[in-house]
Amino acid sequence: MGQPDTAPHLILIDGSGFIFRAFHALPPMTRPDGTPVNAVFGFTNMLARLLKDHAGSHIAVIFDAGRTTFRNRLYDKYKAQRPEPPPELIPQFSLVRDATAAFGVPAIELADWEADDLIASYARAATEAGGRATIISSDKDLMQLIRPGVEMLDPIKQKPIGLAEVMEKFGVPPGKMIEAQALIGDPVDNVPGVPGIGPKTAAQLIQEHGDLEGILRAASEMKPSKRRDALIEHAAAARISRELVTLRDDAPQPLPLDALVAREPDRAKLGAWLKEQGFRSTLLRLGLEEGGAAAAQPAASPTANGAAPASANRGPQGQLFADPPAQPALAPGDAFGTYESVTTPAQLDAWIAEATAAGVVGLDTETDGLDAMRADIVGFSLATAPGRACYVPLRHEGVAGQIPPDQALAALAPLLRDPAVLKVFHNAKFDQLILARAGAPVAGPIDDSMLISYAQEAGAHGHGMDELSILHLGHTPISYDSVTGTGKGRVPFAQVPLDRATPYAAEDADVTLRLWEVLRPRLRTNKALALYEQIDRRLTPVLMEMERAGVKVDADDLRAMSKDFEIRMAAIEKDIHRLAGEPFNVASAKQLGEVLFDRMGLAGGKRMKTGAWGTDASVLQTLAEQGHDLPVRVLEWRQLAKLKSTYADALVGQINPETGRVHTSFAMAIASTGRLSSTDPNLQNIPVRTEEGSRIRRAFIAEPGHVLVSADYSQIELRLLAHVADIPALKESFARGEDIHARTASEVFGIPMQGMDPMTRRRAKAINFGIIYGISAFGLARQLQIEPGEARSYIDAYFARYPGIRAYMNAAREEARSNGYVVSPLGRRCWIPGIADKNPARRGYAERQAINAPLQGGAADIIKRAMVRLPAALRSAGLTARLLLQVHDELLFEAPDAEAAATAGVAREVMQNAASLSVPLVVETGIGHNWAEAH
User: How many CB atoms lie within 10 A of CB 283?
Assistant: First the structure.
């Protein structure tokens, strides 16, 4: 803390914002006497971090004194719709004031005035005294105050908010935020604004007409439009809105500026208050109790039997925490890079005790490979607070005195099992599999910073640790390449010297914990908490067991299949050479382009940047539709080549020698829609309706005495379309169990369903499925091999019969343009990055994504919800069947012969009841000794 000088630097903390952020970020907690304290705990830690990282000469926390102010007299509906605070928050308001006093920070509030007005008034006082003010908040209402001498700091991202940031977000400078807010309004505060005007339109109007009055004067001269009418009709509402959003920097100041001088807290007073609340982890972190962080000593260990102390607080799902989790919503302030190498049992015990006392620990493993079913653990790292982490090497070459792996993991086991300690991973599934294979117990409870990010921003960016660290922490982690080298010079991680391995590995745990602190509180505000808690996090152990189970494949059948594909490819290649008039390398895109466009002179070729002709699938398909045989044969050859290399050959090499089975890895945070994907091998791309696809599925077999059971959602995306677009005819058809494609053909083409021509039904089917993906008339024409005009007439007739579908598509595109994302029926935000792309092709693709994402995302979340429920349902039914695979809308089980029918019945029941829609979900099941038979 600094002493005052002639140029004061005043730190103004938006206390009310801190309270609500902390309350919604943390799970319910109580102190020993039963008083709720989650908001108090979060506020306390946020204030402690702020005092540590942002020293000013003057400081104050500004609170709202009550629910009504002078603005309610200006406009009686102002904030009228706001609900009463939750009952468990009400007793915490006074405790938060006590927390502020315990830290020795002035707390300021004033009846009839909002905290924002007091902040404006004190910011003015600081600048008039020749100093500056820093407002700790990200509230848009305060951005109008930004000017030379007055800045804002986002308490989450720890980044300044200035002119550039306001311009980027709202399109106007801070000095015009009042005008913008008057136009936009604020539904949260019941500020009316002008209906239909958002930030983009407001910015455009302000740029054109200067201010609100200029806009309203010009409204009558604008071109006829809904915007013009709204401005004229709601002019009075805009003016009252301007009064409501204007912050009053002439508000009375309950304390003079001189009374806000920053002082060091009374350590005894602060320590006593923290003890009274039961905030032991904060005491330790602030060095106010023996063994605290300031003394660089680990906390005391728990009782011998591992039980939580009597003062423990209740956490999520009733789990016990020895202390509440570490502070929420705090961006990094502690240094990266100073970490400890742990090579003795005593050191490890001390770190485990410290993690136990902290109540939350970041965890990461280092391995000798990326296949969780084959890799061995090389070491693990722990982080107990930002900047406080260690690395425990287990199998490093040339490092004397390492703790034997079995001994280290046995010491770690109680921490992993401890229900009072939250374990935070980044990609928990991988680390848990590695630990489990090494003999450690499955950890619980856990959080996963990767999945927390994915639940909120699927499709917005990647969710790898390094990318998230740069994005949210402003820190670029040490790269794996910089530690191990690259190319031929790369060494295994076990050969990396400890002085280089420790900073890299410990930083991973540190970054994981920091990401959790930043991202976990946002789940509620981004409306992703239920999605994460009920689906994504609970799915992790289910997928772990699926990956451990693997699936059996017939190696002999695969080898025979590979030989068959090779023979067929050779025959096709011979035919390709005949059609070309000369031999060439069919696998060479360059040589193929020269044959097609230079020697054969086919029209429509385009050269790429390299100068070579483009010969991808779309080019060859277009040529094939023009009646050329050679591209048709090349497409057939490529399909067989891909199936041969990807499945027939690769699957044999992917059989795990320990289990005799193939173990795919399910990626949980890749697809923008929430869908799972799989790698090594990728089982999502096996052709569904071709002879070759069925041939590959025959190689997936059951163990002797067992069968495979397939359970597949029937037309789930079409059902979701009928549900979200609210199409009565389609919903009725699904309810009756009718042939939906025949019904569509009957509705669109005006012909009876009985005796329908198969070609007519096929056309309706192509439209039904094509609509989901935003198919164009050209695309439908190509698929049905008809003229584009005829295809257009089909699509027009379809939309004429089902106008709700066109309305849904338009709404989805507009939602994506307005928000940057669309929302699935179960609430997942699917971000659409290219929706505003200037390139028409990329923008068109993004618009098709916006249409399909809610449907595909809804289907993905429904099947994942079913997967979460199935293990318990199978156990409850006394069944031993194992869930092996998930491929899009299908689940594959392995069950004893005698349990096959019962397993199919349980799967059908759980899957059909996984979501409540306005149309029934239907699941088709099959049983067979191989996947093809079951499918």
Answer: 23
User: What's the whole-number average pLDDT of the chain?
Assistant: 86
Does 690 score more than 90 pLDDT?
Answer: no
Residue 842, domain CATH: 1.10.150.20
Of 857, 880, 903, the last residue of a domain is 857
Contacts 24+ apart (CB under 8 A), 195-202: 195/230, 195/234, 196/226, 196/227, 196/230, 197/227, 197/230, 197/231, 198/818, 199/169, 199/170, 199/171, 200/171, 201/227, 202/170, 202/171, 202/172
Residues 483, 392 within the same domain:
yes
pLDDT digits (tens, 9 = 90+) for 343-380: 999 999 999 999 998 899 999 999 998 889 999 999 99
Residue 197: give its domain's CATH number: 3.40.50.1010
Give the whole-angstrom CA distance, residue 266 versus residue 743.
Answer: 77
Give the long-range contacts of residues 234-237, CB within 8 A, separation 24 or more: 234/192, 234/193, 234/194, 234/195, 237/185, 237/192, 237/193, 237/194
Count of H-run helices and E-run strands, the chain? 39, 24
Q: Which residue has the higher pLDDT, 754 or 569?
A: 569
- 314-329 residue pLDDT tens: 233 222 222 333 333 3
> In which domain, by residue range, is 766 found?
717-857
Residue 107 CB partners (closer than 8 Å, separation 6+): 15, 60, 61, 63, 97, 100, 101
- Transcribe 453-478 into DSSP letters: HHHHHBTTB---HHHHIIIIIS--PP
Helix axes 777-784, 788-801, angle to 10 degrees: 110
**472 in the same domain as 345:** yes
Integer Cα distance of 861 and 675 in angstroms: 7
- Region 221-226 average pLDDT: 86
CA distance 551 to 661: 5
3-state secondary structure of 364: strand
343-347, 425-429, 498-502, 605-609: range with lowest mean pLDDT: 605-609
Instruction: Supply the angle between the helices 537-549 and 428-437 in degrees, to the nearest 10.
Output: 40
The answer to whether the beta carbons of residues 552 and 703 sit under 8 Å apart is yes
Output phi, psi for 660, to 5 deg.
Answer: 70, 15
202-216, 764-778, 873-887: range with lowest mean pLDDT: 764-778
The answer, as to whether pTM is greater than 0.85, is no
The amino acid occupying position 541 is P
